[in-house]
Amino acid sequence: SASWVKLSSGKYGLTIQAGDNLGHFQRKELHLNLEITPPFYYTNWFITLMILFILLTAFLINRYLVNQEKEKGKLKRKISDSEMQTLRSQMNPHFLFNSLNSINSFIVQQKSREASGYLTTFSKLMRNILENSRYESITLEKELNTLKMYLEIEAVRLDHQFDYEILIDKNIELENIKIPPLIIQPFAENAIWHGLNNTN
Questions:
Q1: Is residue 161 in a domain?
Q2: pLDDT (tens digit, 9 = 90+) per residue, 39-87?
Q3: What is the phi/psi pair of residue 138, to 5°?
Q4: Best exposed site among 1, 111, 120, 180 by fewest CB in 10 Å?
Q5: Are strands 138-139 and 178-179 parallel, antiparallel or unpaired?
Q6: Helix (H), strand (E), coil (C) string for 18-63
Q7: 181 burial type by CB count under 10 A (0-12 exposed, 13-18 middle, 19+ buried)
Q8: Which domain holds residue 121?
Q9: Are residues 115 and 148 in the same domain?
Q10: How far apart are CA 159 and CA 107, in angstroms?
Q11: Residues 120 and 158 both lie in one domain
Q12: Angle at 104 between CA 193 and CA 106, to 5 degrees
């Protein structure tokens, strides 16, 4: 009898030859072909299946994470849009009321030239605000143009109690930078009112 242990998987050839105790063997031999199959987890189909499973799992995890980031981005944009809409709704009525009062004051005082100039600038500003409010972002150039008109109106309305100057770095490309509309105006408004209140 013969036995083999821990044979690797593969094909083997076995030759059997009969003999006696004296060491005499027959010339006739028996040839057997054997094949040892590997465990299923060593087979090519199983390895391929596992690779595909790992790749699919990685793809699904990555897709889930990407979708989560997109949802977070959408939520942040919604919050930002909501905050901007709230800010605009608070700013516009207050500013409109004061501006209309100023126009009325010029008319009562029979300052037709001042009233006409103020009304012209005011109408341009309102047109800019309405136009820019349609977009999530506008160029910094447009935002600064709106800011200049706002400051001009406020300076006239407050009888030039303050001076202003907008300084822009020459390396800044105003037409290529995008920002949310009306994001600078509240800071200018606060600066004007707090500055004037501190002088009184």
A1: yes
A2: 777 778 888 899 999 999 999 999 988 888 888 888 777 766 666 665 5
A3: -135, 170
A4: 1
A5: antiparallel
A6: EECCCCCEEEEEEEEEEEECCCHHHCHHHHHHHHHHHHHHHHHHHH
A7: buried
A8: 92-198
A9: yes
A10: 15
A11: yes
A12: 85
* Cα–Cα distance for residue pair 90/172, rounded to 1 Å: 31
How do residues 83-93 score in pLDDT, each as one tens digit?
A: 666 555 545 56
Is 141 part of any domain? yes
**Kind plus residue range of the DSSP H or E element containing 179:** strand 178-179
Q: List the structure tokens of 194.
A: 């707090």
21 assigned to some structural domain: no
64/82 same-domain check: yes
The answer on 101 and 58 residing in a single domain is no
Query: Which pLDDT does position 68 carry in this prediction?
Result: 87
pLDDT band at residue 181, thresholds of 50, 70 and 90? Answer: confident
CA atoms of 17 and 65, how far apart (whole Å): 67
Confidence of residue 198 (pLDDT cuts 50, 70, 90): low
Domains in the chain: how many in total?
2
Q: Does residue 165 share a domain with residue 77?
A: no
